[in-house]
Structures are given as C-alpha cells and as structure tokens.
Amino acid sequence: MNLNDDERAMRDGRDGPAVAKAMDLLCRYGEALGAERLVDVRNVAGTLGAATPFMRDFALKHGGMDAVFSEFNLDSDEVVEVPPFKVYTTHLQQGLDPERPKEFNVPEEIIRIYRKGERYAAERGMQMVNTCTPYLVGNVPVKGEHLAWMESSAVIYANGAIGARTNTEGRESAGAAALTGKIPYWGLHRPENRLGTHDVRLEVTVDTTADWGMLGYWVGEIVQEQVPVIDGLGPVPNLARLKHFGAAAASSGGVEMYHLVGVTPEAPTRETAFGANTPGETLHFGQAERRATWEKLNTTARDPKVDYVMLGCPHYSIEQIWEASRLLAGRKVHPDTELWIFTPRAIKALADQNGYTKIIEDAGGKLMSDTCSAMSRGAPEGTRVAAFDSAKQVHYLPAILGIQGWFGTTAQCIDAAVNGRFTAGPEI
C-alpha cells in the first residue's frame, strides 16, 4: 500500500491507538485486495451495537463497549479507547425493535444493553438511524462521492441509483473507515469497474414494486457480481421500485452496480453505460422469464393459509406506508394472521404524525422500526406460512426460520393479511 504522509502518521500512532489499529486493518485489507492506495471517504454506513447475550458477556468480561469495538470492528485483541469518529457515520439496522420487546421475545436486560450500545455509538458521533435504507433518512450521497457502506441493498442503491462509489464493506472495514476517513481504492471506487458487462433487454412492462423485484432477482441470478445494463424501460421507476430491484439483485446474485439506460446517473445512453466494454451476453426478460421467476420465488409456498405478512424489506419509505395505510383503511387483519411493517424510526415518527400508524394499528397491524424479521430472526409465535412483497425477504426468511413464503404485490399481501389466505398467481 502506498500511504501518504497523513495516512502514515495515523498508522504510526499520531491520532491514538484506535486510529492506528484502524489504519493497520485497512492496510492489511487493501493489500489482500491488491489495492495500491487508499481513498478519502466522508460517508460511512456501518454497525457497532449488537444487543445479544454474547455481546453483553463479552463486554462485561473484557472491558465494556470499547472492548466490543476493538474486537469486532478493529480486529484487535488489545482493548483500545475509541475516540469520536472522524467522518459522518450512520448506523444500520439492528436485531430488535426496542419499543416492542414482547413481539421479539426479548427480556428487559437485552433492551438495556441495546440502549447502552446506542448511547456509546451516539457519543462518538454515530447517527443512530438504525436502518438498511440510510438514504431515506438523511444520508443521501451525491454522484461520484466515495463511501464506505455495509448492507447489500444500500450499496447497490448508492452505486446504481445515485452514482456514488462504494463496495460492500464489512463491520471491520466500515468501523476503520469511520475512524480514519479512508478505505482501499479498489472495485467500484475505480471508474473502469463500474462499466456494464451484460446487455439486458426488457420485452415486458416492468411497473410495480413486485415487477422490479422479480426483474432484479432474475438479473442477479444470471449476472452474479457483474454489472447489468437494462434497456427498453417502460414507466420510469421511483425510489421504492429501485430499492426493491437492487435488494433482489443483491440477494440472488452479488450485484453491487447496475445501469438503467436513460434513468440512472452513469447511463444517459447505452454506449456510455458500457464505455470501452463489449457486452459479454445479451439477456431478454419477457413473459416466460417473469413467470419462471415468480414460480422460483414461491418455491417454498404450499399452504394458502397465511400466519404472518411482513412488509418493509428493505425498510419502507413514507410513500409505501401511505400506500399500505390506504389499502388497510376500514379493514381488519384476520384474527389468525399478523401484519408487521418495518420502517426507519424517523419515518415511523412521520407516519405517526400523518396518522398512518393509527390506520395500520386500528386495522390490527403493527408498524415497527430498527430491524426486520431477517435481522432479528423474529416472527409471530407459531408462524408456519408468511407472505412478502419483497423478493429479498422471500429469498432469505423461509430458510432462516424454516417456514413457507409467498411472494406478491403489496396489495396482494394486504389482502392476505385481511383474509388470512394468499391467493395471487404468476399473472401479477
């Protein structure tokens, strides 16, 4: 690694032992990746707290939250005092909603640990947004800005929809970046790695969030970690649709970057999106591919009787909460079914203010924050069959919890919550 004078000074201890440990980690990380240098970042999205008995015991045994950060964010056996973070840093989602411990079967002691971890992080300047969608609650980078972000659905949104530059970082590299304002210059930080590799032609209208989720799932499974360029768009997708597209593509594959011709910042034209690259493969997404994707997403589903409907993966925007509340207004969730909707805490406050939370709760649903069922490994007791409007969640949660999972539109999921049965088909 070629370090400049400031980087060498941090490595050598000028700014204290925690920063030196962080620089050492970043140098080892960069060398393993073959990076020649570091790049400046002023925007980090990572994770610090973890409200688990293991973390509690580790903190008690080894010296508090500094010990937790040293071990799990700096890869250091030596406990070092952690100073305030150097750059703007936001916290991603955690493992529970502290306002609803009963739903997650969490004892009060764990809530106290959770709150202690929040205070520790906030005292060091971390923004406790606790969401997988930091761009919904104030962390909105700009085109060309270098970031150090965790969370696959956030990373692909930042790269593709916004045109910022980040790889999918881990807890360690994001923690080190927060203390140093540096990250290895490799992967999608480099312009040549952001160019398209696969030519995707749409032969069917892609409109709803479910449509975009299916397209993302299909594309991701084929291109894996490459960069698809999608042409032939119909209606221009909004934030929610791009959110579901990216989350699905990052789940079925490892997509971190994409281009939508005429829509996303680095693809004003097809030629610009590919640059010097020649497309390696041309893919066609038509009705047959759409139907096959729906069937694959519903592979685990057999029983139409639904115990649980989960919405909010990635976390719902205020627009999506508004949509759900309109679909629920004047209706009641079936007595044998639970409806949980997940959103950032700040968005929930807005939903409270607008009256959407009351509509959802009057119908028998629950609006939650800070986590989701995949992160918390939590679902209503006795859940055997669930329904989702997220291709990402139906990909993960059946395997995580050993349940059946249906995939459909938001409206179909709300109907399932009200009727207690899922009745959609591949014609969605």
Average of pLDDT:
95
What number of structural domains do the residues give? Answer: 3
Q: What would you say the CATH architecture of the largest domain is?
A: 2-Layer Sandwich
Could you say which overall geometry the principal axes of the C-alpha atoms support?
Answer: globular
Largest sheet: 5 strands, parallel
How many strand segments? 15
Rg from Cα: 22 Å
End-to-end gap = 51 Å
Structural class category? alpha/beta
CATH topology of the largest domain: Aconitase, domain 3
Q: What is the top-level CATH class of the largest domain?
A: Alpha Beta
Portion in beta strands: 5-15%
What ranges have pLDDT less than 50 throughout 5 or more consecutive residues? none
What would you call the quaternary organization? single chain
Describe the structure.
By secondary structure, the chain is of the alpha/beta class. The chain folds into 3 domains: 5-189, 2-Layer Sandwich (Aconitase, domain 3), CATH 3.30.499; 195-296, no CATH class; 298-419, Aconitase, domain 3 (2-Layer Sandwich), CATH 3.30.499.10. It is 42% helix and 13% strand. It contains 17 helices and 15 strands. The chain has helices at 5-11, 17-33, 53-62, 65-73, 108-123, 152-162, 171-180, 209-223, 239-252, 270-274, 287-297, 318-328, 345-354, 356-362, 373-376, 391-401, 410-419, and strands spanning 38-40, 43-46, 88-91, 126-127, 148-149, 182-184, 198-202, 228-231, 259-260, 281-285, 308-311, 338-343, 366-369, 385-388, 404-407. A 5-stranded parallel β-sheet has the order 13-12-11-14-15, with helices on both faces. Strands 4-3-2-5 form a 4-stranded parallel β-sheet. Strand 7, helix 8 (209-223) and strand 8 form a beta-alpha-beta unit. The longest helix has 17 residues, at 17-33. The radius of gyration is 22 Å and the shape is globular. The N and C termini lie far apart (51 Å). The mean pLDDT is 95.
